[in-house]
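User: For my dataset I need records formatted as: sequence, then structure tokens, nothing else. Please produce one.
Assistant:
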Amino acid sequence: MAPRAREHDDTTTPPKGRATPEARAARHASRAGSTYARFVREVASAGGYSKAEAERYAVATIATLEERLPIADVCALEAQLPSRLDQILSFQPLLGLPKMDRDLFRKRVAERMALPEDQAEGIARLVFSVLRRHVSPGEARHVEAHLPEDLKTLWSGHDR
């Protein structure tokens, strides 16, 4: 006797072990929120900041970094970020400053953070450290390849 084909009516519940599209979307949103929360917690913990400060500092640093990168690299970097962080960054203006050196970077990030430049640079170094742990090694090398030498040392953390 041939095995009976499993019947499934698309208008009913999914087969056992399968989630509905709504459940999958909710699970994705939950994972995205938890990876975002983990990213912000890492920045907050490493610097002794509140969650709100850590979020503000991360967005300021990454948005300023993105101003220095070609748009294709911005897209590649954001694809590896927690989706909630990517959404927040989408509201940040990109000036496209391909000649940005470390001094201009420090000035721009300090303006976004509303902090003195020397303090902002230290925070940016910390955010870069967390960011490098959240992207693939290949993407980290790709970002570094597009930075001038003085920003490469800040990105890599080898300027201390």
